[in-house]
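Researcher: Next entry in the queue.
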Amino acid sequence: MQGLITLDFGNSNPHAGLFQKVDGKWDLIKVVPFNELQIYTNQLGMSANNSSVVLCEVKSREEELAPLAEQGYLITRVKEYWRGTRFAGMPVNYAKTLGEDRLIEAFYCYKKEKIPTLLIDAGTFVTMDVITENGFMGGYIIPGTEAYFSTYGKGEQLKDVPLTLNFKHQLPQETADAITESYSAFAALAKSLISEHKIQKIVLTGGLTTLWEGFFTTEKTGLVVEGHPHLIHWALQYWMTTQIEPL
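Model: Structure for this entry, 247 residues:
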C-alpha cells in the first residue's frame, strides 16, 4: 500500500485527505478533521514508511505539524513552489498574496477542464476565480453566509429578525426575505463574470456548495455546473503526483 496525506490549513477548520494507491489508482479513502488524523492513519495502517504529506496553508500551524515531522513524514509545501507569475506551468495573473488554496484548486481546473471555468469555493469566505486557457485570471472574495448575515446584528430593528437560507429567488415583500434574498446579489456578481469571460463551466466546492448550486438552477444557457466536494484534496493529490513526485 502507498499512501498520501493532503493537508488543507485554511482560514478555519484544518482537515486532511487520506489517499491510498491500489492497483495503480489513487482513491480518496476519507476526509477528516486534522485533530483526528492520527486516529485514522493508525486505522488505515498509514505511516511515514509508506505515506507522504502535501500541505496547502493559508494560516500557518507549525506547532500542529511538528508531530508529523517527528514521526518522519516528508512534508511537501505548496508555498515552496509558488513563484508569483507562474505555478507548475500555469500563468498566474494575480499578486503573490493569492492564497494557496485558491492557487492549487485553480491549477487543477486549468489542467483538467481546459475551457473557461468559474471556480467558486464556498466556505467561511467565498472565492470566485476565473480560469481560462491563459491561466489564473483573478477573482473575488466575499463573505460566506454566516459572516454576511451577522452584519445585520448591527441594526437595532434587524438584529432579531429570524433568518433561514430558504431562498425564493423572487422580489422580497417581507423583512426576513429581504435580508436573505440580498445575498443573491453575489450570484449576480458571479453571473457577470460568466458573461464577461465567456465561462463554459462552473466548478463548486466548499460547505455552501448546495446553496450556490441553487443560484444557477434557473440558468438555461447550457452552462455546466459541477459540484466537487473535496476539490482541495484532489487538487493537492494531482499536483503532488504529477508535478512533484510520481508516487
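Model: The longest strand covers residues 25-33.
Researcher: Noted, moving on.
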